[in-house]
Amino acid sequence: MSFHSKFTLLASVAAAALSLGALALGGAAFAQNAAPQATAADADAAVEIIVTGRAGTGKRTKAETSYSVTNINEEALRLQAPTSVTEALKSVPGFWVEASGGEASGNVRARGVPVDGYGSITLLEDGIAVAHDPALGYLNVDQVFRVDETIDRIEVVRGGPSAVFYSNAPAGAVNFIPRKVGEVASGLVKATVGQDGLFRTDFWYGAPIGDWKASIGGFYRNETGVRDPGFTGNKGGQLRATLSRDFDRGNISFDVKRLDDTVVFYTGIPMRTYETGDIKAVPGFDGNYGTLTGPETSMADMKMGDGSIYHYDNTLGTQVKRTQLTAHFDFEVADGWKLKSTMRYNDTATQRNGMYPNTLLSAASFLDQNKALIATAPGATALQLRYNSTPTQTYDTRTQNGNGLVTVAGLRGITMPVKEFMSDNQISHRFDLGSQTHDVTFGAYFAHIDESFSRYSSSYITDVQDNARLLNLVAVDASGNLVKALTENGVWRYGYEWENASGEQTTYAAYLADEWQITPDLRIDGGVRWETMTARGRVEQKKTVNLGTLNTSQILMGNGTFATYDQTFEHTTWTLGANYQFDKRSGLFARYTSAARMPSLGNYITNATAKPTIQTMDLGEAGYKFRSNAFDLYATLFWTQYHNVAFSNYKFDVITGVSTSEAAFADTETLGLELEATWRPLTWFDMTATATIEDPQYKGLTYTDSANHLQDYDGNQLIRVPKTSLRVVPGFNLLDDHLRLQAAVEYEGERFVDTANSVKLPDYTAINLSARYYVTDDLSLYAYIDNATNSLGLTEGNPRAGELASADAGANTFIARPLLGRNYRLALMYKF
């Protein structure tokens, strides 16, 4: 289908949606005539003030913006009760989110920008980045940020001007806006318990103190985890304190936040395609609640090439200790002149440990592939696998655990201390030119990052069951007697990964934006950003040492020499949009943005000779917006073209224990439609819906693989991104509005694991239920059922099998990561 045909098709769908919206609006108007229901909440919603993705001296409502915005208010957040930052973004059209890995390390793909983690969007807190680079090489921004009751609401800009106002935000910006202190003292306390051993307490209290306002809040929680690892997976919390003061024509605030938290990271589990076509966990493994991680793989003393020991502790999971200091100054220096300055300093220490199932295969195959090792044990006639904790227990290659499978899994430890300073400064002026006005903003941004990075990994042999156990490879004689132990403590190979690097990055940016009100109905918005980045650092070079045994024969370690890098990049991004208002409630907008993502320290942490390029992309959007007390509709057509995306295709070799990579480059193109609607036909019923219909394709993805074969994947669907995503949330307000019941029905179309589109992730539907009951005006009870139908929807395959052409192609047994199983939670909140 040609680009013109696709655009025409999507335009037709948009027109149909608008027609349905008009019909629904008419029905809503009829219902209103029968039972008027405009509420104060509706009136407030109609004039939501947008602070993200723009500057200037004036205020702008959602219905008046020239780009796509999604608002999530505090009560919507409470009813959704997201278990992670990534989960909080489920209701945003145009975003595909994947949070099956737990509370951190999620993935967001926005509008067809083909990068994982948070590489396509940035996270803001009160208008400034949580981290300058939200995807800083093994350090996703959601690892260092938690959602709690100190957050008042979320604003999400999709595409639009985010690339001009923020660094590393080519496809959007998510702004978590903290709660503000009012004119009188107030607060809340919330306690949450869950089926998975969860106990959590959130609190916030704020009060005026003379001319100042102060608040304190945070959370603490203790939780085993939905997939029980055999130890406490999530433990810790955060505390924040804010001091602010309003004065004539301005305000100033200071905020300090301390995060000390540990979260478990869930990797893929063994799945199988059965004769019925159903995909479920392999026999002997619980697909809803099981994880390979367990007590036997939670602690390990790994030998290093210099004879020292690396102490691996997976009970830490992703452990983050972070201190964040923020200062904000806002002042109207004269009529029509506004000065704004925000500074943030972060000191973050991250330890990221995890168990990664690199390869899944039958035990019989594993033994057959390694039969040459029999010759290293004179008198031996065969190989066996025996349990490390019970050395006399032999692994039955046919029936053990009901599956006869084993994994070669990597236990990986990564240490990343990062210190970061950011400063964003703006001066805005609104002036008149005849009947027209200009609201002009000039901004200057600075960021400096110091990072160290170290990694050590060893591979282990495990069986396949919930909380997998370690296995050793042994050689036996004809009677089955032990001749020689070929491995020890379950280790297949020590030190198959090793890194030691450090560096610093400095970024300067200047931007200019103008909101040009041509007529009362027509406005042109434009902006340009120039940015330069310099990265300097060093990476220790590696050597391989042989300590004399099978699992110590190829240990990687440092050789004492360092390769250095010192590179500078600069680029200019720009955006131009137009907005036409029919009235305060409705309008049309269109926008074109030339966006980019700069390289960062993350490109060099394992390779000082890397030659990263500036990732450039073109984004177009055109939308219609309508808002009333009874019906809201936001429909946006978007187009994204991504230039020269790089792929590193990692594949793990079970025999050598080595990961090798292939590189490829391509463009991508995505044409799509986003729909966001709310319908309130009755006082006791409402429904919200979001939908994304898109056609994400690779363009020009051809390359010659390591076997010298030409591979042509031009026109294939982008990995992990579905063509159709739908989320519908019907809600019921009962018992004189004391009881609220709602269900979130989520559908994701089929996706693919690799660019070859050889391994399919089937479509799935998941349902989340929630309820709120007002016991009194101050006391509320919340109840949640996550994944009520226990859907085993697959969110990703095994990236370690290769993402260009997966080694899992054609296999009926493979590694994949499904949704977390059904889980129940209860929360009690008291406001005062």
TrEMBL record:
InterPro entries: Beta-barrel_TonB, Beta-barrel_TonB_sf, Plug_dom, Plug_dom_sf, TonB-dep_rcpt-like. Its main location: membrane. GO terms for cellular component: cell outer membrane. It is a multi-pass membrane protein. Gene3D superfamilies: TonB-dependent receptor, beta-barrel domain (2.40.170.20), TonB-dependent receptor, plug domain (2.170.130.10). GO terms for molecular function: siderophore uptake transmembrane transporter activity. Keywords: Cell outer membrane, Ion transport, Iron, Iron transport, Membrane, Signal, TonB box, Transmembrane, Transmembrane beta strand, Transport. Residues 1-24 form the signal peptide. It comes from the Bacteria. Residues 62-173 form the TonB-dependent receptor plug domain. It is found in: Cell outer membrane. Residues 302-787 form the TonB-dependent receptor-like beta-barrel domain. SUPFAM superfamilies: Porins. Pfam families: Plug, TonB_dep_Rec_b-barrel. Belongs to the TonB-dependent receptor family. PANTHER family: CATECHOLATE SIDEROPHORE RECEPTOR FIU (PTHR32552:SF89), FERRICHROME IRON RECEPTOR-RELATED (PTHR32552). This is Cyclic nucleotide-binding protein. It comes from Asticcacaulis benevestitus DSM 16100 = ATCC BAA-896. The lineage of its organism: Bacteria, Pseudomonadati, Pseudomonadota, Alphaproteobacteria, Caulobacterales.
